Amino acid sequence: MLSIRNLHASVEDKQILKGLDLEVKAGEVHAIMGPNGSGKSTLGNVLAGREAYEVTEGEVLLDGKDLLDLSPEDRAREGVFLAFQYPVEIPGVSNINFLKTALNEVRAYKGLPPMEAKEFLSRVKEKQKLVKFDAKLANRSLNEGFSGGEKKRNEIFQLAMLEPKLAILDETDSGLDIDALRIVAGGVNQLRSNDNAFIVITHYQRLLDYIVPDFVHVLYNGRIVRSGTKELALELEEKGYDWIKETVDAEGTV
Amino acid sequence: MLDEVATDIMITQVSDSLYTQLIKTYGGNLPSSEPHSLDEIRKQAFERFKSAGFPTVKQEDWKYTNVQPLVNRQHYVLDAETLSSDDLSLDKAVIPGLDAYRVVMVDGRYNAKLSTAADIHGLSIMPIDQAFDRLCFAKYFAEYADKTDNPFVALNTALFTSGLFIEVGKNVQLQKPIHVIHVASAMKPLFAQVRNLYVISTFAEAEIIESFITDEGAAHNLNNTVSEVVVRESAKLQHYYLQVAGAQGNYLNHTEVYQEKHSLYNHYNCTFPGAAFVRNNINVRLGDSEVESHLYGVTLTAGNQLVDNHTIVDHREPHCESYEWYKNITQDTSTAVFNGKIFVRPDAQKTNAFQQNNNMLIGEKSAVYTKPQLEIFADDVKCSHGCTIGQFDNEALFYLRARGISEAQARVLLVHAFAFDVTSRFANATVREYVEHLVEQGLKAG
Ligand SMILES: Nc1ncnc2c1ncn2[C@@H]1O[C@H](COP(=O)(O)OP(=O)(O)OP(=O)(O)O)[C@@H](O)[C@H]1O
Ligand SMILES: [Mg+2]
């Protein structure tokens, strides 16, 4: 589904991704872990098309289509969804209106007519239930005055509404209490299918108890330096990143 | 007599300034009619205008708003009578879903054929010159507007011959809004001077929606309008300005509101891409205690437009509340000006006054001039004001696009969001929807 090859990206002339490779197949869940500042959010932003990030080398294909050529909105319409680490507040834009606009623009891109009001509302209801997202929040301005956890839950609510092919969750677990974590993870698990895929960026092994990944990768200094199964996450939890940093830095100097 | 004036203009068509033209035409020859009590008021007003002349940018109130090119521009015709088109389309003023009594003013003249607001119980609507002998005309005409130093008011008082009179009777609650449609249609450059007087009697409730439009074939026009509004004790008025005129339109709009005890006045001032030049003076005098006034504004400009809103909220008595919120969105090379004066006079204790002006500069070469001006002479008051100038929030723009919303649509959403503090206050949901639609349209054009 997603194929990233030798991806180099920079921000303000600072090289952040330095030759990143990643293959994600339909139906899979990949976890990405790694120390602060290693480039995890940058990867999410580059995939979503944030303009400040400049790709200097490499390619990204989504089902064979060159993603890097597309505008952010077209990437979303092709099925890329980034759940933001820091969702912005947009006072005055109602959550529901925003979702309706987004959903219908995605549908228009696929040549579908706007969704009937009734169908839309029943979908809203169903998905709200899925992530136990308070109906009152759905009717408020987008993220305005939401608590950190509510913002994260809203990201997953949007994810559920838009049903993307590829979802990238950037630290969706941070700031969530235990109950919210279970709910969010439960929502993601229900959305998992053979046709979609997830990239889950997290610092905590705990999340991976709920969303069990097929693969775990360690991103360090702009590259994926280790890949394994969920046991790798347990090992990281136990040992921290130093042992990986040491071996990678040593390899680099060879 | 008016016909003679028009002919005279045709003959002496030299490229003289409007000032000279007016002095030549009207010096010692002011409009006159029964009752003659008006004559003296006109005479004095003309003298005031004569000595003041048209303002220049050297005057603080006109610093960013240069009327000189307009008043020196070309020869104007001073009487619309022979020029107005009869074959008018009012399409541009249609507010979808609005059920209202309609009043159509063509080049400042009441058009009975196109109007539907006659014979409503408790509502008097007529050309202003038919109201000269009314008690409330004598009482309120030129009572407050002419105390200001706006030379355009003096000029208007001296020379107006047309306009609209509305009186809503005691205790009358109008079932429908009054939709006043001002059409500029003259096919020669017209300097129109229009005088309106609206009186909302005690315990009455009304809604007046005014649209400004331009007929397709209209030439360049300059409109000097003065509206005097009196909201009597315990009365309520919702008052909308919807400025959707064409590029030929240039507007000087002076609105002078006087409020009595317990009254409520809400003004919603909306200007959209089109009219080349718009200057609004909106003055609200809170003349007694327990008065409430709200002034809201949305200005969306494009092209090379200039839109200037000068407001005065004048707290004269204790226990009053005023709330003002203006939003400007400027595109291309347009200019928006906001000047908000709040006076709290010594007697006006326990005043609650709020003012906020937010600006969103979209056009890199657009400009915003904003100036709050608070003059507070009472000590037990709550007053706050603030202003902001910003651009598109790129983080928000990206967030919306990352959900599949096109850049254009994302901009529309963000501008709606920016205007929300104001549009969400609209008492009339139909007008609100219409205004939101105009914002959307105005953005696409820009
Ligand atoms: N817009 C930006 N401008 C300047 N520097 C940036 C920008 N975005 C990211 N960086 C820098 O790039 C590096 C990688 O940042 P990134 O946010 O991708 O890290 P991360 O792995 O997500 O870290 P964390 O675990 O703390 O979320 C950091 O040094 C960061 O300061
Ligand atoms: Mg991050």
TrEMBL record, chain A:
<dbReference type="InterPro" id="IPR027417">
    <property type="entry name" value="P-loop_NTPase"/>
</dbReference>
<dbReference type="GO" id="GO:0005524">
    <property type="term" value="F:ATP binding"/>
</dbReference>
<keyword id="KW-0067">ATP-binding</keyword>
<protein>
    <submittedName>
        <fullName>Fe-S cluster assembly ATP-binding protein</fullName>
    </submittedName>
</protein>
<dbReference type="InterPro" id="IPR010230">
    <property type="entry name" value="FeS-cluster_ATPase_SufC"/>
</dbReference>
<comment type="similarity">
    <text>Belongs to the ABC transporter superfamily. Ycf16 family.</text>
</comment>
<feature type="domain" description="ABC transporter">
    <location>
        <begin position="2"/>
        <end position="246"/>
    </location>
</feature>
<dbReference type="InterPro" id="IPR003439">
    <property type="entry name" value="ABC_transporter-like_ATP-bd"/>
</dbReference>
<dbReference type="GO" id="GO:0016887">
    <property type="term" value="F:ATP hydrolysis activity"/>
</dbReference>
<dbReference type="Pfam" id="PF00005">
    <property type="entry name" value="ABC_tran"/>
</dbReference>
<dbReference type="InterPro" id="IPR003593">
    <property type="entry name" value="AAA+_ATPase"/>
</dbReference>
<keyword id="KW-0547">Nucleotide-binding</keyword>
Automatic annotation (TrEMBL), chain B:
<dbReference type="InterPro" id="IPR000825">
    <property type="entry name" value="SUF_FeS_clus_asmbl_SufBD_core"/>
</dbReference>
<dbReference type="InterPro" id="IPR055346">
    <property type="entry name" value="Fe-S_cluster_assembly_SufBD"/>
</dbReference>
<dbReference type="Pfam" id="PF19295">
    <property type="entry name" value="SufBD_N"/>
</dbReference>
<dbReference type="Pfam" id="PF01458">
    <property type="entry name" value="SUFBD_core"/>
</dbReference>
<dbReference type="InterPro" id="IPR045595">
    <property type="entry name" value="SufBD_N"/>
</dbReference>
<feature type="domain" description="SUF system FeS cluster assembly SufBD N-terminal">
    <location>
        <begin position="17"/>
        <end position="180"/>
    </location>
</feature>
<protein>
    <submittedName>
        <fullName>Fe-S cluster assembly protein SufD</fullName>
    </submittedName>
</protein>
<feature type="domain" description="SUF system FeS cluster assembly SufBD core">
    <location>
        <begin position="191"/>
        <end position="418"/>
    </location>
</feature>
<dbReference type="InterPro" id="IPR037284">
    <property type="entry name" value="SUF_FeS_clus_asmbl_SufBD_sf"/>
</dbReference>
<dbReference type="InterPro" id="IPR011542">
    <property type="entry name" value="SUF_FeS_clus_asmbl_SufD"/>
</dbReference>
<comment type="similarity">
    <text>Belongs to the iron-sulfur cluster assembly SufBD family.</text>
</comment>
<dbReference type="GO" id="GO:0016226">
    <property type="term" value="P:iron-sulfur cluster assembly"/>
</dbReference>
